[in-house]
Structures
1.
Amino acid sequence: MLVTVAGVKKEIAEGTTIAKLIVDEKVENPDYVTVTVNDDFVESEDFTTTQIKENDSIEFLYFMGGGAF
Amino acid sequence: MAFTNEQMERYSRHIILQEVGVKGQKKLMNGKVLIIGAGGLGAPAAMYLAAAGVGTIGIVDADEVDLSNLQRQIIHGTADVGKAKVKSAKETMNAMNPDVTVNTYREFVTSENIMDLIADYDFIIDGTDNFPAKFLINDACVMAKKPFSHAGIIRFKGQLMTYVPGEGPCYRCVFKNPPPKDAVPTCKQAGVIGAMGGVIGSLQAMEAIKYLIGVGDLLTGKLLTYDALKMEFHTIKLPKHTDGCAVCGSHPTITELIDYEQVECDGK
């Protein structure tokens, strides 16, 4: 099924969960990533149970420090 | 307040802009921006705000200039190594534009001092490198109803978002709590390309300028990310409904400022 991951359209398998997508997309620091599906947050405890649906738009938001020192 | 001939010339490229004009330039000259961290992000932000004629600019940083800073912290020069960053920054800004009043605060932000530091300013720029400071700045700005720009940079990537009280989510809505010590690499551990501070810090200055003048759309309700290797900017829309947020939600559970364990500040 066709979905949008970080702004890029791609095919993923039916029934893919957020947790699976995090692995497939090789998300850095997967324990500390924030995820939105269709502009809504998905709680991290729901990553393994939340299945992605056709045409969903998924975004990964990463902790980023950097700056002063 | 009438402009001098010198000011008319100095700010002529602003004044000619329809969105700025004499009125907008006056707003900048009456504006007060506090920059927390005079480093990779704070350096370009401070320089562009000084050049723009923002009337009062505060700089908060307890550190001294280190040789390893100079690859990206362009407000400091080789002769400034060992000097307090706030002093070095002020000298550069005063040399660029004597119109600007630069207030220096040689300290780290803590739960004790941050409310006093931000109180007199219209807009806050978070140019810090560590998550305890980022969460502290967020919570303080939410509690004091101050708009601020968050940014982070690492390797070839950067991100920023703007919080305006009553308009969209805060940093804690997105990231909840600071990650544990060493769970997420810092610039010192992972490196950062020097010009990244220039790109993202300049965008923070742009947000402050737009906020002060009152034009355009800010990055409220959005996280802008930049990947220099792919040369791509990407805007991530954030949820509108964040009633459940621990600090900016309708029933906040965080009502006092928190000093999380400071872990990244040894990085210089």
Note: The beta strands of chain B are 32-36, 56-60, 101-105, 123-126, 148-154, 157-163, 222-227, 232-237.
2.
Amino acid sequence: MTEKRIPQTDLDRLLARLRQRAAVYAPAEDGTGEVVLAALSGKESVTLEYRNFRLSPKALVLPQNQTLLCFKDGQAEEPRLPEGETILFGVRPCDARALLALDQVFLNGNPHDPYYARLRSGATVITLACARPMSSCFCTSVGGGPGDGTGADVLAVALAEDLLLRAETSKGEALLASLADLLSDATPAAVKEAQEQVRAAEDPMTPVKVDGSAERLRQAYDSPLWEAASRKCLGCGTCSFLCPTCHCFDITDEVRGGAGRRVRTWDCCAYPLFTLHASGHNPRPTPKERWRQRIMHKFRYAVENFDRLFCVGCGRCIRHCPASLDLRTVLKEVGA
Amino acid sequence: MARNPYLPYPARLEETIVENDAKDIKTFRLAFDDPAGAAEFQYLPGQFAELSLPGMGEAPFGIASSPTETGRLLFSVKRTGLFTAELHSIEPGARIGVRGPMGKPFPWDRVAGKDLLIIGGGFAFTTLRSAIVYILDPANRSRFGSVLAVYGARTPGELMYRADLAAWQKRDDIGVHLTVDKPDQNWTQHVGVVTAVLETLTPSARNTLAIVCGPPIMIKFTLLTLSKLGFSDDAIILSLEMRMKCGIGKCGRCNIGSKFVCTDGPVFTREELKTLPVEY
Amino acid sequence: MTASHEIETRLRETAERLLGEKKVDLFLGHEKASLPLRTTPLFLTVAADAARLAWNPFCSPNLAVYLPRLFRAPADAREAKTAPPRPTVGVVLKGCDARSVVALIQEHQLPRDKLVLVGIACPGMVDARKAERVLGLHEALGAGEDAHGNIRAVVEDGTEVTLRREQVLADVCLECRAPTPSICDIVLGAAVEPREAHVARRQAEELESRPADARWAHFQQMMSKCIRCNACRQACPMCYCKDCLLDQTRPRWVGAGTDFSDVAIYHLARAFHMAGRCTACGACARACPMGLDVRLLVRKLNLEVEDLYGYRPGEAVDATPPLSAFAMDDPQEFLTEP
């Protein structure tokens, strides 16, 4: 597929055009100096100067809370599923790959989740390659990369003045075709520059050994090192809530008068109540079992079930953990 | 388009039967509002469903009826928390949602031609009732060899399905041994734990599959006894319980290792369980 | 103010001695984290590992949060039979951490006689997110303290950037009125001047000077970003309830989603449970993944307790927290003149 280009000065025009056909989310300052993946109304100042968003884009296909059923007079009904298309512009390669992991859980297998499916199928993902990874990034160690187009419909690379765009799926092709009047072909020099930028971004990332992690973790299940590694864990949920592949949820009913709804909300396996039985028995009674579950899920169980790591190396958990727990360190300690 | 897996089939409570003297275990007979729903709800013994009360939530329960009992959908529920308390208080005619059937049933394809040893303890006998009724149905009985059931409870008043048990004990195509920890003055059958009865009966392990359902402590000791009796790990079938929410392998709550109790289970062979972490 | 590295050396010696002489079974401190501008809690059981202990401007975590679970009473007689004996725990405390320990002792969550408290008067700790915001698109790959107490960060292109301490200290530290631990067995380092009293009131006063609808809008805006992760509660040393009100299902007081009423009730309920108990350590704000000013409500409630009862939590272990006691001459204008 040929690379296309658009001058970055035309980015607003491109986004305005996209807004004609879909709800567009793009990186913009939120007024507190932070760049978030904001729903564009046209008044935001879009910027490409950011590393990654604090909240992952999973919130747009698996919202923090989502109505599953509506109740009226004791009857349960399906809610009207949201219609319309969304275009997510500026998603980082790690987060785009994470969507594929979520697809394994919610779309594949029987049955598939209609709520997730609706939001997911309505979304077009335009990934923006990374030029400057952070010291907490390790996407290259888990099968991704700063210029990886997996999970994207269009892969964009920001050069000094231009934005290069390449379709990765037929959906992306159709999107670019609809913007043909705004785009021109990228020069071979620009394409080469983009490739070099991606390569330069890969270099500084410290490798994390994950090959064979599933087997090593299986053998390390009873290691006393889990206790030491998890003692610091507060069970605060930050890691799971910010993680782009974490998908565990709770289902509760909310009632107001004669009406109500059944809603699913994000949940976290590190919470003490997560596996508490009605009898009072808890198979994971201490932080050790819960932290071990978290690592096992991402680096062993997901591999056994889907042949895929449920970690994309985005580093959010490392950067935001209030106890500065680093799963790279734990992997090394229990696996080495 | 496939049915929304989160949407329960609308049903109604037709009848409530109090099972035990303590009156905290009740069996509910449900009927689907829509015959199309009833037709879709094809299940096999061993499976479970999520019962749903709008505003109260949902909880998973093993299906106590057999699919051979057409038009009779039974669930036995012990009152333990918010949801079960509500369920225990509703009257016939009340609406209940049913989501399912879920999970893997007992391995009926493996069971053909085998002798069966069915062991249950306490409240966990629900899906075993389903299994026994299924096996004894004239359309099915000839597929199986001999059937021996051992069921234990703390006291005679805690035994469930007493009418069914009495009827089965009169039959000659099934052996049913009941045992209690603490007898009352009218009790004439075994006294003692289920494993003690097994050791008295010494059932043969040859060409036999054992199906075990019960509280963790009973399972632990039953497995030891079955090993002594010569049962191999893949001949022992267990049904596990876990805290569940979605029941369809998406919410991530009920896993044991890489397996979800709601979709890969709740029925597992001992051989399968040995490959999983001991986190249940 | 004693230099950090001097204190660090003495801290390591102290921990090594306490562990080596078996005066403590466990020593809680901080050690270098994998990312700069941060430390991570360290649970020491071996004297030789004391060399891992760190003392620097990045020792923000409040270690008091880990203490109650070390002394949790057995659930029943059966558990009591197999429960190990209670450990003696050494822990390094800043002013705020010590206040938390005092409050936890007052509430019978910690046995004073099983604690060996090593107190260090704290000149304030760096808020890693503040520092990162100042660095903008640069990323610190390493950071330390210079001779003037400022933070020197080495960024990705190798250049050094100096961050003025006052620019990157945590908000709670900038208004800290009790940096010297109010309770301890061993003191390391000299005392530190507290901040002036009016500084702690500044934020509350600024907010109160705004008209009511502006304040409500501010509150709503903050609540709209909350993702209900409960990190604020989990990080708080004073939130030790095994069955939190906000998790209860019988009845369900608050839903788990981000509906405004649920988010607001969560924070309001927690704030009221913190009034007169919150020791202003800032662990909640540090933990919040969304960077919210989680202390907004409690700050005000604590000032009210101070004004009405002359009480600041955690400063005297013998004091009776006013909201746990009643005196006939307690001020009651809020009842009679609402």
Note: Chain A has eleven helices and twelve strands.
3.
Amino acid sequence: MKIVLYLHLHQPWRLARFRYLDLGSGRPYFDDERNLEIFRRIAGKCYRPTLERLARAVDSHPEFRCSLSITGTWVEQAHRAAPDLLSRLRALVATGQVSLVGETYYHSLAFLLAPPELAEEVALQRQMLEQEFGATPKLLRMTELAFSDELARFAAQEGYLGMLAEGWEPLLRNASPNYRYSSHVAPNLAVLLRNYRLSDDVGFRFSSREWNEYPLTAEKYARWIAQSPGEMVGLFMDFETFGEHHPESSGILDFLSALPDAAARETGLGWASVEEASALRTVGFISAPTTITWADQNRDLGAWLGNDLQRSAFEAAKKVGVLVRQSGDPEAITAWRKLLTSDHFYYMYLGGHGADLGVHQYFSAYGSPYDAYANYMNALTDLRQRAIARIHR
Amino acid sequence: MVGWEFPPHHTGGLGVHSFELCRELTLMGHRVTFLTPFTGPFTEIPGVSFRYPGEPAPARSGSTPSSWPTAYDRPIDLGRPYPEAMVDYNGWVAALDGLTEVDVVHVHDWFGTVGAASLARRLGCPLVMTVHSTEYDRSLGHPWKEILDREQSGLDAADRVVAVSRHLKAQLVERYHVPADKVRVIYNAVRPPERLARLESPESVVLYLGRLAAMKGVDTFLRAGARVLRQLPDVLLVVAGEGPEYPRLLTLAAHLDIADRVLFLGKVNEEERSALLARSSVFVLPSIVEPFGIAALEAMAAGVPTIVSKTSGVAEVARDVFAVDFWDIEEFASRIAELLQYPTLRAIMGDRGRTEALREGWPERALETVGVYAELLAPGWVR
């Protein structure tokens, strides 16, 4: 049994309060200072200590593997707020034990737009990884772990070895997520699935005192994994799980440090990078006619496009995209792409998925979904006016 | 119940609250004697009897013809005390006879506190006082001492105090030194509107509806409106209500050069009110001080997207609104423009606001009030 640990590094460029009255004022859409301040805070609590723990794990356990996806917006902010994180990442990647995963540069909803937007954003991120870390991603993950047959086709066309996806029952039809699968529409493309039970034991439940398995020790967790049937277990989660979603006081960082030791003591338990896992034998085919994600209880796009506010904002963004491309203004294109980052739509969530509203509020940059929508629409309207002015010039 | 105004002739939230509370209490099987300094007419509610100074010498046995002066024949504005009449009214309340089977004396705001306290003492009943606003709020920090004293004596004498928001409760604890454990928060509510149809009109109407008093911040409404009009010249600002600020607001509208885009309607009746709400695109409650703000809840119940000031009591309970700092004219203007410009936002806030405003109503508030009575009465009092 191989542990496939995959962590996702992302921070969005959050918008400043951009009032309707600010239209045409030339004010910046994004609040750089606030974003960098948030980044610095999370770097102190999570990024830096977790990267230190990973470095130690790599040093002391040559069998240890970890795979990371890193968005362009995260790297941009790291350069300005905590550049030491980039050198730490470079050192990790250089060991060959840590590999990188491809995705969109802007953590965007580009996969719902007409080509060539998605291909361009994925290429941007790939170039960024090559430039910053000297490594080329071989596997692809889509924003919020979105997966569909269409995306599988895209990944195969772009030459990727595989994609990551949620190990969701409707997709598996009662099969186990703990194997390497292939895409039904692109048989050469590996599909690595997230074991959401074991992933959420760490991601969601670790610090919950109401959980009957509390406290979770590395030994207990390694034993669970070792005892699971299958050939690989996909532990896919946010990097911020370690030190941000669960504070250091919960013991989460020590848990991470202890995991390689605990795994070494279990017979038959090892580690695999996403590349190594994609080289495992395939046991079956995965078909996803509609998009599934790793979010909320429905695992659909409801978290970003589930209500009229979100859909109307996204439709408006699509239309502005046409104008922005036509304008040929590189700054406008960059601003537009930053506005496609999925987080902006997530903030407009109105509830309706039961307990998930709490999760949304935890991550929201606004007091209410209405604030999020109005602010977004103001920035988008301003961008639209800018693009139109440019076109008519 | 020692009250003040009562519908149909009421000017604010107090009259609405008294009416709805009386109605719900009688529906629960309680009987209410409502004392007021006004001669009426009163909107009839079965189970509620009205008493006022100078009432026609009644068939009530044992009551001597009143030597007290006649009550006012119409409501007067709060905050303009009539000291003598006030003393007289309290004397009349304290000495009132012909009352039987009283379980609790419940007084609203300051004007009847002294009389209510003596009445409760004489009858051996607990005293409950509901505070709808304080003199500090109404006077924007320039309180009339006579009124402060009456508020204080009511708060001191009351066995339980009801505040219409947490914000107001905090003020009672801080400024009047009322022990926090004596105060219960019971919010206002709104009755489901009979008319639900929304009227689409070519002109966007932005509405203020309420008294034209300094604490209401209506000048913010006009200034924000003027900012919106620079960008959206077809907007119509409607100010419905009357009050001492009217002349000043009229001058301000002229000064802002928006007089042709502002409609001052004066006082509106119930029917006009619902017609106005039905065709408004945005409702604004820009109050500097607002212990609760029923008007905002009414607008929400009518499906009108609503902007309130952060300090209002209604902002404590309503999530489906925009909440803005009362001094932030630019932000009020932006919120108005955003609601006018983004139809999806307007529709969703309108729909969800209506659901939220009607989730709980006066029956729940009356139950909470009875819960406060029950804290003070013998076990088993609640049927």
Note: The domain at 2-286 of chain A is CATH 3.20.110.20 (7-stranded beta/alpha barrel).
4.
Amino acid sequence: MRSSDSLPPRDLPRQFASRAELEATLRQLFPQAPGGLSPIPGGRRAAEAALAAIDPAAYGRSRNHLDGAVTRLSPHIRHGVLSLVEVREAVFAWLARSGQPPVAAQKLINELGWRDYWQRLWRQLGDGIWRDQEPLKTGHPPERYAAALPDDLLEARTGLACMDGFANELIHTGWLHNHARMWLAAYVVHWRLIQWQAGARWFLQHLIDGDPASNNLSWQWVASSFSSKPYMFNRANLERFSSGRYCSACAAATDGTCPFEASYEQLQADLFPGASSC
Amino acid sequence: MLKPVLWIHGEALGPANPALVAHPGAPALFVFDRELIETQRLSLKRLGFLYECLLELPVTLRHGDVVEELLSFARRHGADGVVTSAAVDPRFGLLREQIAAQLPLQVLEPEPFVALPEPLDLRRFSRYWRRAEPVLWGRGSAAAPPAPARRWDR
């Protein structure tokens, strides 16, 4: 690290011998910030490498799978290291280069559209993104939901291998696959009956692509305050899109206590017994 | 504005930042917003990611009160104003107002992902996408067939 006495007063250092030295400096600068660095590096070089590696066709086919060809561009887009325009042009250039039909890139362009949509909504709603956009469709009154996350979730010791795995990944890497975000959010809101805002704050604390608009409005989509019905999943869905990696090592999956082991109809009845429209 | 300083914020940490494009070589500042970091209890992962992005930009780094640090930086450089890029986070709007009360402030807009006439119906993504998708593909090499819009497929 460059000696601080060679810098103008209050300027922060810009030269580090290693990532470990950067981390040590940041711990001194921000002693209240929990954890360490993400294994995912920031910066234009990393962003350009991620952009050069995109495969829009494979993305379209496999993006819902935890092992799918997701782009991992979100942290770079969120902080403007890559602009949406640059990514859009890279996708069109990929189409021209690959000779694939436009439909091959349609899913990826659609997801870029979601990013643009959330930002436009944020401009319109401002801090209103923290409030329910519509009444919940779960049949539960708002006061039924707890205001804070429980310790077992924050400490990744719920006893459910999937949810503990997602919480650990969130806390230690700062990135989660979109499907894992959905499952974890649905578990928090519908199985644990916790206000979506508590989960949204938790995600924003850790996600290196943490964007209040995308994050909060997606939590509201799960909760059903920005959608026509609550999002839920069952074990079969999670097991399929995670290749069974969690269930195979989970006691709850074999001892009959997995809370996700049910049909959608059964879960609907159990989780939302008072919902009139479901 | 003859001698501005640039205010770089966390929504535009790349070379497409219109303030950096319009004023190459001008003194630029990023401030780690102490109040925001503390109230949101941001993790070191998030701060480290930002820091690594900033190390690849020609920008001075500080930690503290954003307005105070920016005005002090402008004084150090004898600046006659501040140039920045548009931001969506309403917090930046409040900070901009405080800065503009002290120094001339210019806000530059980045190129939009898709240019659409306002007002736009944003009640559901599908309504936005019906307008945006044809415009986007109209500027590509060929038109794509419309697809059903659904967030987070089950």
Note: The mean pLDDT of chain A is 96.
